[in-house]
Every structure is written in structure tokens, then in C-alpha cells.
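Preliminary data (for renewal application), uracil complex.
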Amino acid sequence: MTSNDWRVTGDGGGVKSRRELVLEEMGLAPLWRVRAPAAAAPAIVQPEHSLAGRAAAAGVVSPPVAPRSSPTARHPSPITGTDDRRTAIMAMDWASLKARVASCTDCALHRKRTNTVFGVGGENADWLFVGEGPGAEEDAKGEPFVGPAGRLLDNMLPAIGLKRGEGVYIANCVKCRPPGNRNPEPGEALACEPFLHRQIELIRPKLIVALGKVAAANLLASDASVASMRGKVHRCRDTPLIVTYHPAYLLRNLTDKAKAWEDLCFAVRVMRDLREGAAAHT
Ligand code: URA
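Predicted structure:
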């Protein structure tokens, strides 16, 4: 399956303006659909060569507990007792973890939040999509990806046979909204990291999809660009991970949508191989 297998379906089939295309992607018009069945050709997946992987191999990175040579590690954690806190979080079940997040005041983001945004979906889902952090609508509703970017994500999921709440879990690196939709500060992401790591351990997804640079940077402890990380299978906490563009970025950069479709096709192939137990990805 290639990006050529995808097309915009719509009434009349004429050429559409950028505005029409954006509205379509926001769920106000027809969706992306598979034009042809998936090609049988096996995926050629490159081995892990990320900075994080190299650093881990060199013993520099210790993802479970220690400070990392990552974007987050350049700033001190705003919290004290980090190791004990992390150990406690990593022992929690779903109910304790949800309650812990809901009452969290461990970084400054809690001061301006309306709701924490824990995550949504099947708690044993094979797919885990990870974004950056809640925006205004997510903060208001307490659910991830319910704003414009979320509507695009919801339109992308059926294209790979998924639906919000069915077979997929959606979460963010930080559970409270960074004011003004700014990127989470490294210390904020670090404070929230054990929550996401525990979610990964509880869900045990077959494949993580990192949406955008911030998610990839935090999950892989890498400063690499999304462009350079796409099309490869990375690993996060022993789980295969692929990187693609953030839906909000795609809404602003329509020309890169084709690359996102390629990434989804790649993800489908990786998942298929993982389900078949192909050694190339494990
Ligand atoms: N962007 C994100 O990264 N996450 C959300 O939940 C919403 C927008």
C-alpha cells in the first residue's frame, strides 16, 4: 500500500480549494478512504538508529528512572523526591493512576487547568497514539484530541481500521493544558512522564504512534526532526514506535498530508508484521 492508494472522496470529484479540504479534514465533509486493498509486499523497516537508541546502547539513557540526555533532561525537574514518586506511579493500577493524575499538582500546569486530560480508549488496545498536550477544548472536556486536530485524527483513524474508543488508546505527553497552547516545558513533560510510561505499561500496546515532534522527543529522548524519524521503527519502553506529523501541523501544512498517509500505511504494515510476529520489527 502506498500513499497513492489514498484519495479524497467527495461529491462530484472536482478540484477542491484548500479551505474545502481543511473543512473536509475537520469532519465536515467526506473522509479519506482506501482506494485499493493493501499490497501484499512486506514492509522494509529500518533498524533503530535514533539518538535515543544509540545513547541507550551506550548506557547513557536510562528511560525508566534516571535523568536523560533528552530535551527534558536539560532542565531540572520541578519536583522533589522524583525517584520515589516515579516508583509509586509505576506500581499503580488504572484506578489509582487516574485518581493520581486527576489530583496532580506536581508542576505549574495544574494552576491554570480546568480538567486533567488522562487519555481515552481501550485499556488493552494494540494501538497507542500519543500527542503533545491538551488544548483549550481538551482542557474544557477532559478528553484528548477533541478540537480541530482531534477531528482530523478522528478522520484518519478509520482509514487504518480504527475508531476512537475501539482498538486504540489516545493520550498525551502532558495531562494538563500548557497555557496559550505553547509546547510543554521540558520540566513539565518530565513531571508527567511517569504517568505516560505507566499508561504504556498498563495498555501494553503493540505499536505506539508518536504524533509530532514534542511527542517523539519525549518518548524517544531525541532532538531529531520528525522528517528524519519517519519511516523507521523506534522503540519506547520496549514497545515499537513510529513517528508521524501532528494533526495540528497537518492542518497548517496540507502539502505534508501525503507524508502522513504514507506514515499510516507504514504503521499498518508494521502492525501487520508485529501481529504476525515478524522478527524484523522486534
Ligand atoms: N494536541 C495534542 O497534542 N493533544 C491534544 O489532546 C489536542 C491537541
